[in-house]
Q: What sequence folds into this?
C-alpha cells in the first residue's frame, strides 16, 4: 500500500490529510499553528498518520506536498505548491462540478475560477487588508465577547441588518463597538458585519466571473451567517463539501502528491 500526504500550514492552523493510492482519505488532522511551521506540520501529519491502520510514520509516505504560508519551511515535503492551486484541486476533488472557489483564510481572501479539470483558470486575492479574513472575525468576536460560531448564530437572528460603512478592519471594529454602546440590536449589528464582508467577497468573485457550482473553503466557511450573506449577495447557492472546509487545501496537496 502506498500513502500520500498533504500539509497546509496557514497563519492560524496547521492541517494534514493522508490518502491511499486509490485516493481514499485515511486520516486528517488540524491544530493551531505555532511559530515554527515545520513543527506544526510534523505534529499535524503525525496525528493524521496515527489514524491509518498499520505501524507507519512520515518516512513511509510515498510523496508529501506542502502548502500554505509555511510551505517553504517543510523540509520533509517533496515539493510545495501554492494554497490557491491546492484549494482549487481539493474542492474539485470533493465535487467535480465546482467551478468557483472562495477561500477565506486567517489573513487573506481569494476567489478562484476553475477549469473543468479543477486547475485554476483565474484568481484574485485580497491580502492588503485583514477585513473579511479570520483575523477580522476574531476582532468582531472580541467586540461581542463571542466566538465565531456564537457570532454566526447571532447574525442569523437579525430582522433588520445595520449597514457597516467602514472598510478597514480596525475602523469597522470601532464602528461596531460604537453601535453596541448605542444599544443597537446585537443581532442586527452582527448581520451588518456579515453583509459588509460578503460585499467585499462579491467584488473578488465578480472579477474572476461567477460560475456555478460555487463553494467556500477555509475556516470562515464555517460562519453560516457569512455564507448566507454571500448567497444573498451573489444570488447563487453555495455548495457544501463533505469535508471540513479548513481541510480542503491539505486535501488538494495530498491529491497532487498522489498524482505525482
A:
Amino acid at each position: 500500500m502506498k500513502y500520500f500526504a498533504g500539509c497546509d500550514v496557514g497563519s492560524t492552523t496547521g492541517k494534514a490529510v493522508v490518502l491511499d493510492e486509490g485516493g481514499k482519505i485515511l486520516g486528517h488532522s488540524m491544530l493551531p499553528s505555532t511559530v515554527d511551521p515545520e513543527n506544526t506540520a510534523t505534529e499535524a501529519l503525525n496525528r493524521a498518520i496515527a489514524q491509518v491502520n498499520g505501524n507507519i510514520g512520515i518516512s513511509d509516505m510515498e510523496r508529501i506536498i506542502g502548502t500554505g504560508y509555511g510551505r517553504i519551511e517543510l523540509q520533509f515535503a517533496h515539493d510545495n505548491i501554492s494554497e490557491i492551486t491546492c484549494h482549487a484541486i481539493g474542492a474539485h476533488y470533493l465535487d467535480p462540478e465546482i467551478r468557483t472557489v472562495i477561500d477565506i483564510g486567517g489573513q487573506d481572501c481569494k476567489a478562484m475560477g476553475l477549469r473543468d479539470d479543477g486547475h485554476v483558470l483565474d484568481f484574485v486575492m485580497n491580502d492588503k487588508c485583514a477585513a473579511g479574513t479570520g483575523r477580522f472575525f476574531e476582532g468582531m468576536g472580541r467586540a461581542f465577547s463571542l466566538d465565531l460560531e456564537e457570532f454566526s448564530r447571532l447574525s442569523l437572528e437579525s430582522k433588520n441588518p445595520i449597514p457597516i460603512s467602514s472598510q478597514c478592519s480596525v475602523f469597522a471594529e470601532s464602528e461596531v463597538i460604537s453601535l453596541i454602546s448605542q444599544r443597537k440590536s446585537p443581532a442586527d449589528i452582527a448581520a451588518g458585519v456579515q453583509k459588509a464582508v460578503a460585499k467585499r467577497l462579491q467584488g473578488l468573485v465578480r472579477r474572476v466571473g461567477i460560475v456555478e457550482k460555487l463553494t467556500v473553503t477555509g475556516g470562515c466557511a464555517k460562519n453560516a451567517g457569512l455564507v448566507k450573506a454571500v448567497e444573498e449577495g451573489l444570488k447563487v447557492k453555495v455548495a457544501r463539501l463533505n469535508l471540513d472546509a479548513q481541510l480542503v487545501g491539505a486535501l488538494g496537496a495530498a491529491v497532487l502528491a498522489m498524482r505525482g
Summary: The beta strands are 3-9, 13-20, 25-32, 61-67, 79-80, 100-104, 109-114, 120-126, 214-217, 238-239. Residues 141 and 147 are 5 Å apart (CA to CA). DSSP finds eight helices and ten strands in the chain.
